[in-house]
Amino acid sequence: MRYSKLLIPTLKETPSEAEAISHILMIRGGYIRQLAAGLYISLPLFVRVMEKINTIIRQEMSRIGAQELSMPVLHPAEVWQKTGRWDAIGDEMFRLKDRTDRDMCLAMTHEEIMTWLAAKELRSYRDLPQMWYQIQTKLRDEARPKSGILRTREFIMKDSYSFDADEAGLNESYKLHAAAYHRIFARCGLLFYQVESDPGMMGGTTAHEFMAPSDAGEDEIALCGRCGYAANVELAVSVPPEHPTVDMPFEEVYTPDKKSVNEVSEFLKLPPHSFIKSLLLIAKDGEKNIPVLALLRGDEELHELKTQRAIGRQYRPAHKEEIVEILGVEAGFIGPVNMINKEIRVIASTTLKKGLYVSGANKKDYHIKGINPDVHFQAEWHDIRVIKEDERCVICGAPLKIRKVIEIGNIFKLGTKYSVPLNAVYLNKDGIEVPIIMGSYGIGPARVAAAAIEQNNDENGIIWPVSIAPFTVLILPLNISDEETVKTADLICAALKSKGIDFLIDDRDTRPGIKFKDADLTGIPYQIIIGAKNLKDGLVEIKNRRTKETVKVPPDNAAENISRLTAVM
């Protein structure tokens, strides 16, 4: 394929709106253009990258027996209403009405529609198991689109679904998908981890995410380098550092205008871990506000999703006026002892179970010392804290590391969450109707591409893994006016084509320096450089974009050399 015939609008300058490396390089390299916030146009080079990734996905899905189909992007509301997600999902779902005033939505996922189909077509245990997948457009009204194609409003997803007769079948389907995902991401040239995760809005009992390490990632995982423990920080547990208990009498102390843990800690000459941090939260139950007091050790931070799971519903921090109205005292002096409202639900970090602590006295300018959790207040004990780097692994005791990551895939054991409300049942061997057991499995192909760039780049541009590069080889004839150069380029093109190696020839009539800069920026793995100086010696130069190593070979051997290099990838 000829460079002059492709739309590859490279840029010299870094776009002002781009922050993530992948976003910067995809715009500069002529891979994407932004239409609006969270909406991107895929240009020819990126279309080829996506085709390569999707081909790998299709091969591995076929390998485990999954069948490809295609679902509509426009859905009737009633299917989503039956599972309760029409209301539960909230503002992220694009909703609309058709010309008959019927409620509709744009697909952000396809569990409901796949289950609807299963309810129609799977009737007997003889029909099971089944695995169906699609590579389809999804839409999400993302509140804060950012980081280029990592957080968008419209995106392509591979989503697959398993339908089994029992839990044993689901476990097997889950294992097959996990193994397929390992092969897919390895073939795409990614470093990744499979970690425990929260099922979230998908529901079900068990979930894992596949995470690619990157500074551009918005998720964090905890990793143990010794035993392999890995979990999203939303679920991760650790052995927190132990601190000696400071002996102190149970007494009220005057702390004028001292509200924060740090302020009171300095005033009383006590370490922050000797304090109880008290946070009033407001949970929502329909139109009703439910106050919940969350307690943490003074050196801890509240984890939003862990706390949401503990409460059992979404929540928000209480406003200043709500704190006074509910607890009778301003923020900074609240605590679990002597509360005027005895009906408030109290949840506490498990790290507070032992020891003596200081907390607000529910009285302006006063705190209480010597609080014994076993004696002075009652609470529900939960893991609601953010774990920290170098805390100990609960399995082997080694220090944990926290890494920023990009989520590139996920797998869920859904059980009967969707099959029961949508009546997806089958007749077992005894003729009894039983709900189908389901699993759901997603991959974001564009996220795979972005993660590959995040992990494979240098100061000059992208360094694509060979398996997903838009082309394997870029041929660089430095002077297209030279007859010998053009003849050699044509010979190499023909040889590469005969070996089934995809290539791009930069046939532009421009300076060699521009060609070299664009070659490195776009990141095609191998460059064959045809220059007059080397041609005089009967040679061309092959450059490895990743290692920057070069080798000079006769033109007749260039294609064979590339074939050997890519055969071991």
Question: Could you explain how this protein is built, in words?
Answer:
Helix 2 packs antiparallel against helix 6. The strands form eight sheets. Strands 3, 7, 8, 9, 10, 11, 12, 21 and 24 form a nine-stranded mixed β-sheet that branches. Strands 16-14-15-17-20 form a five-stranded mixed β-sheet, covered by helices on one side. With 569 residues, it is α+β, with helices and mostly antiparallel strands. Helices cover 27% and strands 29% of the residues. It folds into three domains: 230 residues, BirA Bifunctional Protein, domain 2 (2-Layer Sandwich), CATH 3.30.930; 132 residues, YbaK/aminoacyl-tRNA synthetase-associated domain (YbaK protein, Alpha-Beta Complex), CATH 3.90.960; 97 residues, Anticodon-binding domain (Rossmann fold, 3-Layer(aba) Sandwich), CATH 3.40.50.800.
Query: What do we call the CATH homologous superfamily of the largest domain?
Result: Bira Bifunctional Protein, Domain 2
What proportion strand? Answer: 25-35%
Which class of secondary structure composition applies to the elements?
alpha+beta
CATH architecture classification name of the largest domain:
2-Layer Sandwich
State the total count of DSSP E strands: 31
Radius of gyration: 29 Å
CATH topology of the largest domain: BirA Bifunctional Protein, domain 2
- What percent of the residues sit in helical stretches (DSSP H or I)? 25-40%
Question: Biggest sheet: strands, sense, closure?
Answer: 9 strands, mixed
**CATH secondary-structure class of the largest domain:** Alpha Beta
**DSSP helical segment count:** 15
- The overall number of domains is 3
Q: Which regions contain 5 or more consecutive residues with pLDDT less than 50?
A: none
Give the overall silhouette. globular
